Amino acid sequence: MFGWEFPPHILGGLGTASYGLTKGMSQQKDLDITFCIPKPWGDEDQSFLKIIGMNSTPVVWRDVDWDYVKQRIPYMDPQLYYNLRDHIYADFNYIGTNDLGCIEFSGRYPDNLYEEINNYSIVAGVVARQQEFDIIHSHDWLTYPAGIHAKQVSGKPLVIHVHATDFDRSRGNVNPTVYAIEKNGMDNADHIMCVSELTRQTVINKYYQDPRKVSTVHNAVTPLPQEILDIVPQKKPNEKVVTFLGRLTMQKGPEYFVEAASMVLKRTNNIRFCMAGNGDMMDKMIRLVAERGISDRFHFPGFMKGKQVYEVLKASDVYVMPSVSEPFGISPLEAMQCSVPTIISKQSGCAEILEKCIKVDYWDIHALADAMYAICNYPALYEYLRDEGKKEVDAIKWEDAGLKVRRIYDEVIRIYNK
């Protein structure tokens, strides 16, 4: 598997999903997983898989294709390349290697992201020559070039996992470079797994893929450890808390949360609103809250991770995800695990599998405000969503998603080996 992040060092849902799926798949005793990431930090859980750091894999000339060298160093004489490639490490200057011949990676999403994606794909070719494996699995667009390179080197089939597309991230204002990387990955994949039927239809209709090679594998949720279950919520007894937790980007619809909150506060003043997370819309949301005159009832605690997420959720009476386009959305499942009544947009992939929550169109701030107000003021509704929501989400297991992935693997390998 090629991934970009892995707990505990995560910046979004990709790392959470990668961990949950691999942990669920590890229940299959005849399955071994090698998970590659740009830069491990050393505290990742390797009890159920093997992690390879691309930043600690030496790159030597014989592992770099001549076409790549010619593109990056046009003045390089081909005969010189062939004379040198079996004897020396890759040129330290042209791909930024360190003294050991390893390429440096930030382990994040830096300004030179395209360069890191390219370098990651180079190292993938080295890894594919070194490892024994039956199938390649690339998570999200950042690792599609790596999967393609590994497939070319090894002759093994490639499955890609679409956790999101640029149509989701950009509200349709698609970055042509990202689109090209995504489409190339899909074109070269032997099978495409999508986290929802919503995403599957995007892949078929926007990237022009054969529906027969595109499947839906819904995400799940990891059971809560005891330390999370033992968290005692910190909240005032006479106040309700409504929470938004996620990146403050246009994909997540934070402005709809603020507008609905403003409408609720015209009807009652015993509710506080928490917008946890950060992103490029943070300043805009702070200004919008001030313009609506609700700053005294609004809180911006910033980015939350690990235990902090669950402390926020357990202190909440309502969780809201008003995403404009959400391929899946694991956070509502995490909220429901914590017995928090949840409101989600109908434009989210998790709406396909969740029933014990309230669903609204992301743009319908009147419906969103009514749902917030009702859960906070009608105990019977609150208790029903709290109890039934937890029962529902506790039955959604990563092991089941892992079994579906395994069936896809087996079929892809069978067809590939015909």
Mean pLDDT: 90
Pairing-aware structural class of the strands and helices? alpha/beta
Tell me the span between the first and last alpha carbons.
23 Å
Basic shape? globular
Number of helices: 17
Strands ordered across the widest β-sheet:
9-8-7-10-11-12
Strand content: 5-15%
Radius of gyration, CA atoms, in whole angstroms = 23 Å
Order of helices and strands: HEEHHHHEHEHHEHEHEHEHEHEHEEHHH
Helix content bin? 40-55%
Number of strands: 12
- Uncertain segments are 83-95
Largest sheet composition: 6 strands, parallel
Description of the molecule:
The protein starts with 12 loop residues before the first helix and ends with a helix. With 418 residues, it is α/β, with parallel strands linked by helices. The strands form 3 sheets. A 6-stranded parallel β-sheet has the order 9-8-7-10-11-12, with helices on both faces. It is built from 17 helices and 12 strands. The relative contact order is 0.11. The longest helix is centred in the C-terminal third of the chain and has 19 residues, at 398-416. It has helices spanning 13-25, 66-72, 78-84, 92-95, 113-130, 144-154, 166-169, 176-188, 197-206, 226-229, 254-264, 282-291, 307-314, 331-337, 365-377, 379-394, 398-416; strands at residues 34-37, 50-53, 136-139, 158-162, 191-194, 214-216, 240-245, 271-276, 298-302, 318-321, 342-345, 358-360. The protein is 42% helix and 12% strand.
Key words describing this protein structure:
418 residues; alpha/beta; 6-stranded parallel β-sheet; 4-stranded parallel β-sheet; 42% helix
